[in-house]
């Protein structure tokens, strides 16, 4: 099989066209709309289904199926009653940099909207992850993640009250939790373990993020340690699969 010279290395091989050459009609329309989106800026309104069907000489249901996939992939987004070009996805580094720092590096304005801050006795499973005694007091900080006022994720942070006693008094919930720990309490992060999986949001999570329940989400689990190796926080973060990708730098593997 010859490799197309114009092929983007991150795109499906041969544009996703099977070797037998028979392409579903909706996929051909999707490819043509996708090429059109590449020439438009984020926020540009998309023509109506009727206009696209007339342009490509197909049924409206064919256009509708193509648009559904482009919406799920994050190429398009709903805005009011219409559909607009979504623009590039946010790239979040897999590192100990905070969400705030990652979004700012891409020229976007980060923010968080507080859902709740509560204190409760640590249950056994969470105590094991944080290295705490069962029943020890912990904070649960829940916030919606924002990028330029667009809701893009939901973050739950669990941390010992003993380590961060004044969280309910002197922490601005719209700011970076990592910056607060570093600048206010002198806590330096040392390492973290992360696991990422694909999930669907629960009805509550979808409502808070403002997405359909069927939209795939990227779920990140993180347990972080301080510079002395003591476990510090347990984080559960849902990121919109249509608005996020993750990046990391790999080194040489040990033999």
Keywords:
alpha+beta; two-stranded antiparallel sheet; 8 helices; elongated
Describe the structure.
The chain is α+β, with helices and mostly antiparallel strands and 255 residues long. Helix content is 26%, strand content 33%. It has 8 helices and 10 strands. The strands form 3 sheets. The protein has a 6-stranded antiparallel sheet with strand order 4-5-6-9-8-7. A two-stranded antiparallel ribbon has the order 1-2. It has a two-stranded parallel ribbon with strand order 3-10. It is elongated and about 65 Å long.
The sequence of SSEs as H and E is HHHEEEHEHEEHHEHEEE
- Find the structural class using helix and strand composition: alpha+beta
Share of helix, binned: 25-40%
Largest sheet features: 6 strands, antiparallel
Number of strand segments? 10
In short:
The protein has 255 residues and is of the alpha+beta class. It has helices spanning 25-37, 49-56, 60-72, 99-104, 124-130, 167-170, 177-184, 203-209; strands at 76-79, 82-85, 90-93, 110-121, 137-147, 150-160, 189-200, 216-226, 231-240, 244-247. The relative contact order is 0.12.
Describe the secondary-structure layout.
Layout lengths: L24 H13 L11 H8 L3 H13 L3 E4 L2 E4 L4 E4 L5 H6 L5 E12 L2 H7 L6 E11 L2 E11 L6 H4 L6 H8 L4 E12 L2 H7 L6 E11 L4 E10 L3 E4 L8
Parallel strand pairs: 3-10
Antiparallel strand pairs: 1-2, 4-5, 5-6, 6-9, 7-8, 8-9
